[in-house]
Amino acid sequence: LATWSVTPARFREHLDCMRDEGRTPITVSAFVATPGKELPERPVVVTFDDGYADFVQAAEEMAARGLVSTLYVTTGVLDGSPTIGMPSAPMLTAGQLTLLEALGVEVGAHAHHHHHVDVAPKSVARDEIRRPKAILEDLLGHPVVSYAYPHGSYREAVREQVRAAGYTSACAVRNA
After folding, report:
1. Which of 74, 92, 93, 110 is exposed most, by the fewest CB atoms within 10 A?
2. How would residue 137 be classed by pLDDT, with cut points 50, 70 and 90?
């Protein structure tokens, strides 16, 4: 994970910079809900993937500065260790998700086993899209409307499955 990670001290510097420069963090769902409306002054969307246990400290640091984020959780690793293909590290527990929401974190889905949904058989992709939504909604007691494609990529058929599952947004990365 080192390629995509920063030290806690560096992360705090990033947060202080966002706050000091007058950025207004919004969740992915809040951003999606703004078409046709005015965005807040100097908006920024902050997202995290997977659900590693050290995210609790990140969320606490953000909350201390009045900052919000969206966390995309891989539900198959809650209360355990990462699945095949994910770096080995402690993971969040299901019980921590409501605590995170209280700290201003939007919880979204990031598959169940973290399979590449863009190359998986249709039935596997469907399960990786629908199962985490059901699990998270059961745990949190409210709709989960945002999804992040595992490994950041997708194809149109997968995008349609995400829409059909009832998500109103989905995040990806562009391999550039």
Report:
1. 93
2. very high
Q: Which of 22, 89, 19 is nearest to 51 (CA)?
A: 89
The single-letter DSSP state of residue 75 is G
Name the CA radius of gyration of the chain, rounded. Answer: 16
Q: Which among 17, 8, 20 is positioned nearest to 58, based on CA atoms?
A: 8
**Residues 36-56 as b or e (16 or more Cβ within 10 Å = b):** eeeeeeeeebbbbbbbbeebb
Rounded CA gap, 77 and 83, in Å? 6
Q: Output the six-digit token pair for 18.
A: 């966002």
Local structure of 1: helix, strand or coil: coil
* Cβ pair 98, 140 in contact under 8 A: yes
**Is residue 26 a contact partner of residue 43, using CB atoms and an 8 Å limit?**
yes
Distance in angstroms (rounded) separating the CA atoms of residues 68 and 170: 18
> Model-level pTM?
0.93
What integer pLDDT is reported at residue 35 of this predicted model? 72
Surface-to-core class of residue 157, CB atoms within 10 Å of its CB (0-12 exposed, 13-18 middle, 19+ buried): exposed
